Amino acid sequence: MTELDLLDINTLREFYSRLHENSKDKLKRNQKSILLYFLKSRDATRFSILRKSSIGALILDRASVEKLLEAGYIQGMADLNSYAITAKGVWYMEKADAILDIDTLINYVNENFFIISKKDKMSNTEKVILLSLILARAFSKTSCVDLTKADYIKNGWLKVLETSFDIIEKYKAYNIKQKFSRDVIFRPRVNVHTVSYLFRHNNSMKQKTKAIYSWSGDQQYYIDIYRNGKIDKSNLGYLLYRIFAGKLTSEQIDGISDYCNKVSDAHSIYLFDVVTHEFAYPKYNRIIKESLIESVSKKSLYDNL
Question: Which one of 18, 128, 132, 173 is at 20 to 30 Å from 2 when CA atoms are compared?
Answer without folding.
Answer: 18
